[in-house]
Amino acid sequence: MPSADAAGRGAPSATGRSAALTVFPVVGLGEIRPGDDLAALLADLLCGPHDEESPVPAGIADGDVLVVTQKVVSKAEGRLVAIDPVDADAKRALVESESVRIIRRRGDLLITETRHGFVCANAGVDLSNVEAGTAALLPLDPDRSARRIREALEHRHRVSVGVVISDTFGRTWRQGVTDVAIGIAGIAGVVDLRGTADATGRVLEATEVCIADELAGAADLVMGKDRGIPAAVVRGVDPRWLRTASVAGEIIRPPGEDLFR
User: How far is CA 219 from the centre of its chain?
Assistant: First the structure.
């Protein structure tokens, strides 16, 4: 089974970063449709009988982190709407309906703030990897979506893991896109290193690491944008990262601390 390894040397640093992480793609889930019990499907796939053809060696285990793409979560939760893909006015109206504020406009592109507090392109409305004439919207509460999947794994199979719901965002001032966490459960959003020492012994004063975003980006290396792989398991995370958390509570920057809004 292909995997991506991120190996380091020596003991974990002050961040709690592990000496090595392994990322496994989760294959075999199949097409997800509105009303499907995604949490149960993932739980059965990852915790069922395992052999050398199984998606994750030895099955998902305590301490692993399961990363699931927003698209399959939105499909299962029925967050799909019909839209004419060539009707720019219809798409613009849909984006505006999913936004609480329009921050910038440039042609057909809108940078908006969603009701979740995300600042992103077109309110996360996405026409890729869905049926023609359909758009996928962000889950209403991605943190809750992550909790449901985590609880299904815990209650059905007695395995305790972290869960990240990931989506693809652009970055201000940088080209290209990367996956970030829009919902989490059982895994830290941010690890605060302020007051700890760096490798030279100097005390860090401003460093906070968004662990959840880093895990989402790592998982995307094996999921990709064009492979139809909607989930991945990250193995080897430091146990100190596994705790109650939420994107809404830890990652979204409060407006009062935002220099650009």
Answer: 9
How many Å apart are CA 261 and CA 258, to the nearest integer? 6
pLDDT of residue 4: 58
Contact 241, 211 (CB under 8 A): yes
**Is the pLDDT confidence value at 14 over 60?**
no
pTM over 0.85: yes
- Tell which residue, 119, 121, 122, 95, has the closest CA to residue 259: 119
In whole numbers, what is the pLDDT of the chain averaged over residues?
88
* Residue 115 burial (CB count, 10 A): 13
Q: Which amino acid is at 60?
A: I
Provide mean pLDDT across the span 121-143. 93
Could you tell me which residues come within 8 angstroms of residue 113 by beta carbon, excluding any fewer than 6 positions away?
A: 99, 100, 101, 103, 119, 261
Q: Residue 3 burial (CB < 10 Å; 0-12/13-18/19+)?
A: middle
Helices (H) and strands (E) in the chain, counts: 6, 13
Class of domain 14-78+139-252 as given by CATH: alpha beta
Do domains 14-78+139-252 and 80-137 share one topology? The answer is no
Q: What is the pLDDT of residues 72-88, one digit of tens each?
A: 999 999 999 999 988 98
Domain 80-137 is classified in which CATH homologous superfamily? Answer: CofE-like domain (3.90.1660.10)
Q: Is the pLDDT of residue 207 over 60?
A: yes
